[in-house]
Amino acid sequence: MSHDDVHDRELLRRVAARDRRALEQLYLEYQRRLLQFLSRLTSQRETLEEAINDTFWTVWQKADEFRGASRVSTWVIGIAWRCTLKTLRRNNDAAAARLASCVAADPPRMAAPVDEERLDWLEQGLATLPLEQRATLELAYFAGHSCEEIAAIMDCPVNTVKARMFQARVKLRNLLPKLGGIEDASHCRGSQS
Questions:
Q1: What CATH number labels 1-106?
Q2: At what angle do helices 116-128 and 158-179 cross, to 10 degrees?
């Protein structure tokens, strides 16, 4: 167990005991990270703030139900994922339309690129993926979560996570060369004779 998770578990234990300062500290530690991840789903600031507030309301209400089967961050991000989807559906606004079409507008940069143009291609490619595939890749590659943690966050089987990752990588492998101006991408994959 990492030092961060030990710290988060202690904060969550205090939140379960109704320590408002612990909730505030947990909020301060997670708010930026959640905003960065959830802004991939919608660019509507009000929707994001509502979803994050709902997330911490749920954390406040259910902290005593955390059993330690995952890292605290996995548990909190899972709550945030579900709260954001509910908020988007409840608000039935432009963000919900983007959710339905599985395309996010102008996602923020999460990694330090070696090449700005390649990062732009990657972001364009990610924006074309269905929501669940895009979120799975971002949780794995940008946030560093394991398949098991992603399954807990997204409330689905590990094999579903693996299938989403595979499907997303195939789609990106076929799309990214085109975004880079290479129409015949077969030579990028090696000979397949």
A1: 1.10.1740.10
A2: 130
